[in-house]
Amino acid sequence: MVGNPNDSRVKMSAKEDQLRESGELLDDIRYVNQVSEQEVQRLRERLRRRVSAAGLHQDATGPLLDEVSAQLGLLSAKVKLTNQAVRSLQKEIDRPGRSKDIVADTGKMKPPPYLTFGAAQLVENKNLLPMESVDGIDYCWSGADPEIRFSFPLDRSEKLGMQIRLLALIKPEYLRKMKIMIDGEHAKHRFAVDGRLYVVNCVLPSDQKGTPTDIAVLLPGTHRPADLGSSQDGRLLGVAISEIRFGDPESWLSNMLKRLKFKN
Q1: Does position 257 have pLDDT exceeding 50, yes or no?
Q2: How far apart are CA 248 and CA 162, in angstroms?
Q3: What domain range includes position 55?
Q4: Of 30, 101, 187, 224, which has the fewest beta carbons less than 10 angstroms from its beta carbon?
Q5: Residues 81 and 179 in one domain
Q6: Lowest mean pLDDT among 46-55, 200-209, 222-231
Q7: pLDDT (0 to 100) of residue 100
Q8: Which residues of 168-199 are buried (b: 16+ CB within 10 A; e: fewer)?
Q9: What CA–CA distance (Å, rounded) separates 204 from 246?
Q10: Residues 242 and 181 reside in one and the same domain
Q11: Which residues pair with 165 in a beta bridge?
Q12: Are 122 and 238 in a shared domain?
């Protein structure tokens, strides 16, 4: 009896889906692990500063050491578990005769392309200051106006994900307090950390108008670093934008953020 050729296609599709989900889960776990490691570093730095401020008196540092040690222990355990999960998933994805065949047959395992506007392209914006660079990362500070406006010729026949990738903010709470407006409509945003960059994520709804998309970033205000005591810089600043990316919203951190509820 000759088998139905559709059966093999269904099985291949199921394998594709399983491999893709494993890859997405692996990316999610790596991200959570990165956040955990950064939290460990932040806690250690807080401990160092507070012990220094306390003058190293045992009666003041004892409870603090106990508290931070417990938190570091929990975070270290999370890092260890996620590292184990990464190794296990990587072995499954790299298993001989599986991923190679699927990629060769379907060509669907490559990540979707990003449309990226880097600092060199964004610097033409009237409220962005001249481009700067640190450790190979280009960025532009926004200036005195707390409103930053952009206009991009985007294909929005389907929903589109947007990432605003920031090297710094004049005040860290601006990650929560900023507002993103798409063609005059408020768009909810989430934020995450990617290495040295803060990533503001939001989804642009589909639109058939065919005209450029107007995007506004509204900050609570601007400040001079010199007034905040962080440097001698006397410029009024808001956020330091490294780049803005557009792409498939489901290919980024959205699934992981929903899973873990990392919301603002």
Answers
A1: no
A2: 9
A3: 5-106
A4: 101
A5: no
A6: 46-55
A7: 36
A8: bbbbeebbeebebebbeeebebbbbeeeebbb
A9: 9
A10: yes
A11: 199, 243
A12: yes
Give the residue from 215, 199, 187 showing the smallest Cα distance to 122.
215
**Edge-to-edge strand list for the sheet holding 179-182:** 147-152, 213-218, 179-182, 185-187
Quote helix, strand, coil % in the chain, to nearest 5.
45, 25, 30
pTM of the predicted structure, to 2 decimals: 0.56
- The number of domains in the chain is 2
Same domain, 82 and 202: no
Same domain? For 202 and 253 the reply is yes
> Can you tell me the distance from the alpha carbon of 45 to that of 39, in angstroms, rounded to the nearest whole number?
10
Q: Is the pLDDT assigned to residue 171 strictly greater than 70?
A: yes
Q: Report the C-alpha gap between 22 and 255 in whole angstroms.
A: 13
Higher pLDDT, 4 or 37: 37
Write the single-letter amino acid at 31. Answer: Y
More confident call, 206 vs 24: 206
Residue 228, phi then psi, degrees to nearest 5 = -90, -5
CA pair distance 35, 40, nearest whole angstrom: 9
Neighbouring CB atoms inside 10 A of 69's CB total 12
How large a percentage of the chain has pLDDT more than 90? 39
- Our measurement of the distance from residue 250's CA atom to the centroid of its chain's CA atoms, rounded to an integer in Å, reads 13
CATH number, domain with residue 233: 2.60.120.260
Quick one: average pLDDT of 7-21?
Answer: 51
What's the Rg (C-alpha) of the chain? 23
Q: Which of 106-120, 190-204, 241-255 has the highest mean pLDDT?
A: 190-204
The SS3 of residue 45 is helix
114 three-state secondary structure: coil
Q: Cα 162 vs. chain centroid, distance in angstroms?
A: 10
What is the rounded CA–CA span in Å between residue 159 and residue 111? 17
In 3-state terms, what secondary structure has residue 41?
A: helix
